[in-house]
């Protein structure tokens, strides 16, 4: 339980801090945020990817007088569902009809209060570091009354804009090494990335979901961050880490996805059951996380090179698969049940791998009845044709900048 005066002083201090903070790089997501009152606008994304900065930019440009409260403030650790009554009294006194709530999902039954404010005609904007904000925890009280947007660390284009650099092989190499977390791009301190990794594991997963075997959770995360682009299965991971059950491992993998730390790409199949039972490929939220927390970054650059391509696709599409029949293709992108494009990724095409890479791409193109496919390399441009199909070879700095 928290006194109303305490909530008021925290809100006042937080709003004052927002006004003195630098507005930062204007995120491309800012122009894509809808201006609505009938639905809550939910901005979800990994911790420290810039959600608060995005809120700041939205406040400054469109709603400078809005009521703002960040629930992750240490002074609000004792906030309980009953305290929403005190918060609401404070909001009513201010007369504000535009409400910005940061990390509100850490308080139980927050959906009820948000629904109440929507019914009262308020504009509500919510940010949170948990993908379950998009669906799992909304429940019947808010379902259908939300518009959801995801925010990721800097894209390649945003990274280049921040560094005042043109897209180029050198910029691609820098982006691969640094990633897109704004604070790390600014400071270059690896301690930030290691602490971020630990905060997600402990604060966002272990504490939130009551994980007791924190050591296994950490070991599993380190294994995944060292095996980007590789196939994993719950059974194999269970044996490797001597976990109590496969379901425990699968729970951990779900927590990683909920917090955006890792993404798991299934094998394409028209059968949902086969998608669930086949191995999945693992990708991280950012190559900076991989570089700072894994020893395999320089040893397996080819696999990690696929990660920014995946993230480029993930910013725009949710239904992403890998293709594997006789040969393999890295990414299959589906929209509304129809495959729209296939993308192969190879750091460096050479005489030893070109046949394999093109075979996988052309097989996927033919399988889905497409006319062409894309093969992303580090810095090569070319075009190949086979049986009336095209393979467009494009350098990463061109592909990621689109």
Considering the chains and any ligands shown, give keywords for the structure.
5-stranded parallel beta sheet; 19% strand; 14 strands; P-loop_NTPase; DUF4143; 6-stranded mixed beta sheet; 402 residues; AAA+ ATPase domain-containing protein; 43% helix; alpha/beta; AAA_14; Rossmann fold
Can you offer a commentary on this structure?
The strands form 3 sheets. Strands 9-10-11-12-14-13 form a 6-stranded mixed beta sheet. The chain has a 5-stranded parallel beta sheet with strand order 2-3-4-1-5, with helices on both faces. It has a 3-stranded antiparallel beta sheet with strand order 6-8-7. It has 18 helices and 14 strands. The termini are far apart. The longest helix has 20 residues. Helix 11 packs across helix 12. Helix content is 43%, strand content 19%. It is α/β, with parallel strands linked by helices and 402 residues long. The protein has a domain of 147 residues: Rossmann fold (3-Layer(aba) Sandwich).
Find the CATH superfamily of the domain at 4-150.
P-loop containing nucleotide triphosphate hydrolases
Class per helix and strand makeup: alpha/beta
Q: In the CATH hierarchy, what is the class of the domain at 4-150?
A: Alpha Beta
Fraction of residues in helix: 40-55%
| Overall residue-averaged pLDDT value | 92
> What is the level-2 CATH architecture name of the domain at 4-150?
3-Layer(aba) Sandwich
The shape, in one word, is globular
List segments where confidence is low: pLDDT < 50 over at least 5 consecutive residues.
Answer: none
**CATH-assigned fold name of the domain at 4-150:** Rossmann fold
User: Assembly state here?
Assistant: single chain
Strand order of the largest sheet: 9-10-11-12-14-13
Radius of gyration: 22 Å
Strand content: 15-25%
Measured between the Cα atoms of the first and last residue, the distance is 50 Å
The beta-strand count equals: 14
């Amino acid at each position: 339980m928290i006194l109303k005066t305490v909530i008021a002083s925290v809100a006042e201090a937080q709003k004052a801090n927002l006004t003195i903070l630098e507005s930062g790089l204007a995120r491309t997501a800012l122009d894509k945020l809808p201006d609505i009152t009938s639905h809550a606008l939910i901005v979800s994304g990994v911790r420290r990817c810039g959600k608060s900065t995005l809120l700041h930019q939205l406040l400054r440009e469109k709603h400078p007088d809005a009521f703002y409260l960040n629930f992750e403030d240490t002074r609000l650790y004792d906030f309980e569902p009953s305290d929403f009554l005190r918060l609401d009294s404070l909001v009513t006194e201010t007369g504000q009809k535009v409400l910005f709530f940061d990390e509100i999902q850490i308080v139980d039954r927050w959906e009820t209060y948000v629904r109440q404010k929507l019914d009262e005609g308020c504009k509500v904007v919510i940010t949170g570091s948990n993908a379950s904000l998009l669906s799992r925890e909304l429940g019947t009280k808010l379902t259908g009354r939300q518009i959801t947007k995801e925010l990721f660390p800097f894209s390649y284009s945003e990274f280049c804009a921040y560094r005042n650099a043109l897209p180029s092989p050198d910029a691609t190499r820098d982006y691969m090494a640094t990633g897109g977390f704004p604070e790390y791009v600014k400071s270059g301190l690896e301690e930030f990335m290691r602490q971020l990794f630990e905060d997600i594991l402990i604060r966002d997963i272990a504490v939130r979901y009551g994980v007791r075997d924190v050591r296994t959770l950490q070991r599993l995360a380190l294994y995944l961050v060292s095996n980007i682009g590789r196939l994993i299965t719950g059974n194999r991971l269970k044996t490797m880490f001597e976990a109590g059950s496969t379901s425990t491992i699968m729970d951990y993998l779900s927590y990683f996805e909920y917090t955006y730390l890792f993404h798991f790409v299934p094998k394409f199949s028209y059968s949902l059951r086969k998608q669930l039972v086949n191995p999945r490929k693992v990708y991280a939220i950012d190559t900076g996380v991989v570089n700072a927390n894994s020893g395999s970054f320089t040893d397996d650059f080819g696999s990690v090179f696929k990660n920014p391509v995946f993230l480029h696709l993930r910013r725009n599409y949710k239904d992403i698969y890998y293709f594997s029949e006789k040969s393999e293709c890295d990414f299959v992108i589906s929209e509304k049940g129809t495959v729209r494009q296939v993308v192969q990724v190879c750091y460096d095409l050479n005489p030893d791998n070109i046949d394999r890479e093109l075979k996988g791409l052309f097989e996927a193109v033919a399988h889905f009845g497409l006319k062409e496919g894309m093969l992303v390399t580090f810095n090569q441009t070319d075009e190949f044709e086979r049986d009336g199909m095209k393979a467009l070879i494009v350098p990463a700095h061109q592909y990621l900048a689109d």
